[in-house]
């Protein structure tokens, strides 16, 4: 059983060792082995056994179904003989024409988003560039979760007005966090503060969308990693959080970190009752993004996601296309309020990982 793509398409990709073969990612069992695409867009797990990892009957897309789950690494094939990397993310030379590079991004994003079925679909919407690109081309309801007066709620409202879109705002309370935190931690197997904070806003928007009858949630995941959205990429090589000495090298570092992040997000969304849809992570979009030169990732003036903004300007108002956004855990005020709850419960900031300890206490 393969999740995310047709088994024959996966078989062809593996036989050709083609990491960007035209799918949106895949994972599962194929020809007596477990496989996962090069970006790890879908998670799959097997039961830890003595000796080499084995792809026996003891595997699942849901780690909570296993006693001691081990994640199949991105791009790997795992069978009874062990684990082997069979797909690697390419590192192409940058495109020499800025116009061609931006056009390739525009065409890939438009084709990928337009191919998404709207049946049972809603969009996780922050009002920023990434989710607005989806909202402008998919006529479905939008959902945002955040504390009252948070940046994300205000940005989502203003962007929805500009797009004349139907927006549902979930104004969060502390009780919402207390209820959601253990559900996220159990589903993902993670209790560290950062992972839980990042997942919370998305999970709570998905939870409401699911209760309203939606089965699928479109998300803008991958755009920041692929298109140079992070400060640590913009500041390379001075930023100590990356090893690379160029913007393109730093971008590659964060892209290679996607599998762990996507595993968290997919598991959290499924725990909320929806299946994630990530059109900005389709192979065609990834391929176009990887060919961007550094100055189309980060401009000399520090503007990030240059190519994506230029591409999006074809169908978004400038006010949205040029808008900066905050990380979801900060823009929704979830990080601040989870910290407040931890301190109210006696987990003071002077303690090491006080929020993580608070999360663990809720399990």
Can you describe what's shown?
By secondary structure, this protein is of the alpha/beta class. It is 44% helix and 13% strand. The chain is globular. It is built from 16 helices and 13 strands. The strands form three sheets. The chain has a five-stranded antiparallel beta sheet, covered by helices on one side. A five-stranded parallel beta sheet has the order 11-10-9-12-13. Strands 5-4-6 form a three-stranded antiparallel beta sheet, with no helix packed on it. A hairpin with a 2-residue loop joins strand 7 (76-79) and strand 8 (82-85). The mean pLDDT is 92. The longest helix has 19 residues, at 193-211. It has two domains: 2-85, no CATH class; 98-335, Rossmann fold, CATH 3.40.50.
Spatial strand order of the main sheet: 1-2-3-7-8
* Mean pLDDT over the residues: 92
Q: Using the coordinates shown, work out and report the CATH topology of the largest domain.
A: Rossmann fold
Order of helices and strands: EHEEEEEEEHEHEHEHHEHHHHEHHHHHH
What is the beta-strand fraction?
5-15%
- As residue ranges, the low-confidence spans are none
Query: Globular, elongated, flat, extended or rod-shaped: what is the shape?
Result: globular
Spatial separation of the terminal alpha carbons: 32 Å
> Helix/strand-derived class?
alpha/beta
The CATH superfamily of the largest domain bears the name: HUPs
Helix content: 40-55%
User: Oligomerization state of this entry?
Assistant: single chain
Major sheet summary line: 5 strands, antiparallel
Query: What top-tier CATH class of the largest domain fits best?
Result: Alpha Beta
CATH architecture of the largest domain: 3-Layer(aba) Sandwich
